[in-house]
Amino acid sequence: MALIRSCLAALCLGVLGLLAAGLVQGAAIELREFDDPVLEQRYRSLTASLRCPTCENQAINDSDAPVSGDMRERVYLLLHEGVSDMEIRDHMVQRFGDYVLYNPRLEGRTFLLWGLPAALVLLGGVLVILVVRARRNASASALTPEERARLDALINRERTE
Amino acid sequence: MKRRLLLLLPLAGFLVLSVFLYQGLSLNPFHRDSALMARDFPEFDLATLEDAERRVDRSLLTTGEVTLVNVWGEWCPECKREMPQLLDLAERGVRLVGISYKDTREKGLGFLEEFGDPFEINIFDPDGELAFELGVYGAPETFLVDADGVIRYHHTGYIAPGEVREKILPEVEKWR
């Protein structure tokens, strides 16, 4: 009984610790007030789709890096100046490079990146069609007359036995 | 026989892709080029660290001389380790301009007093507004600006002692 009780106590402490860690973590990223829910939604999706330039794989809405804070601030300000999402992304790319976009743009340099998967799917489809066709033709013309005769003979022997 | 060879095609494709991706593993994402390469140094209007009354702007970098612009902060340990290299560069006649990044004036001046001051002048950027325009994401960072104020080279992070001769000086010579 004492054992169960101490286990429970340890569990509670652990949960509390996790909660506290969560609070500390959350406190690093500021809360912003929005009067307009549309702006808030755009802010959320923009900060989730821009990558923090100094942390290898975190969006700026999820990063404690100072530069991410500056970028969030800039996104917030630009949104309130009536700048479009596209222009805000451009604004960041002009300063921090393509690295900050989680979805690279379709342009000459990224053509292979976007085109290759589509090309591979197409190629796969063509291959499947070719293979299926080849098999269909093969089954139709597989037996020569001699083979057919031999097959018939075998089948007949089976029947008579 | 030809058909047999054709069967090896997917394997060949896979190998090519593997080599390509394997190389990607050893790329350091922090060695990417600055987005400002070959572009004009951004406009700014800020006070200097040394004198709060004195304002400087982009004309500071269009003097006809190649300039290294170094972004530093008192809070940045790598910047302290970098100072001997910057002093060395200044001694070799390279013009250096500092950007005091996200510091207070006292701390910035204290830093220069303690570690030396290779800079002709320091731009005081406590909110990081110029640094944001430059796409700075950590300090130290160094930009080489040519005689016409165009950014020609970018070094992210600390300049190691060997890199003064191997990287920085050749770039300075190249754009002079």
From TrEMBL, chain A:
The chain crosses the membrane at residues 111-132. GO terms for molecular function: metal ion binding. Pfam families: CcmH. Residues 18-154 form the CcmH/CycL/Ccl2/NrfF N-terminal domain. Keywords: Cytochrome c-type biogenesis, Heme, Iron, Membrane, Metal-binding, Signal, Transmembrane, Transmembrane helix. One of its GO terms (cellular component) is plasma membrane. InterPro entries: C-type_cytochrome_biogenesis, CcmH/CycL/Ccl2/NrfF_N, CcmH/CycL/NrfF/Ccl2_sf. Possible subunit of a heme lyase. Belongs to the CcmH/CycL/Ccl2/NrfF family. This is Cytochrome c-type biogenesis protein. It comes from Halomonas heilongjiangensis.
Automatic annotation (TrEMBL), chain B:
SUPFAM superfamilies: Thioredoxin-like. GO terms for cellular component: outer membrane-bounded periplasmic space; plasma membrane. Belongs to the thioredoxin family. DsbE subfamily. GO terms for biological process: cytochrome complex assembly. GO terms for molecular function: disulfide oxidoreductase activity. Its main location: membrane. Pfam families: Redoxin. Keywords: Cytochrome c-type biogenesis, Disulfide bond, Redox-active center. The keyword Disulfide bond applies. It is found in: Cell inner membrane. Residues 35-174 form the Thioredoxin domain. It comes from the Bacteria. It is a single-pass membrane protein. This is DsbE family thiol:disulfide interchange protein. InterPro entries: Periplasmic_diS_OxRdtase_DsbE, Redoxin, Thioredoxin-like_sf, Thioredoxin_domain, Thioredoxin_ResA/DsbE_sf. The keyword Disulfide bond applies.
